[in-house]
Amino acid sequence: MRHLLITLTLATACAAAPAWAADDKKPTAQQNKMTTCQKDAGEKKLEGKERQAFVNECLKAKPAAAEPAAKTQGEKLGACSKEAAAKGLKGDDRNKFLSECAKG
Question: Engineering a disulfide at 71: which of 4, 19, 75, 87 sits with its beta carbon 3.0 to 4.6 angstroms away?
Answer without folding.
Answer: 75
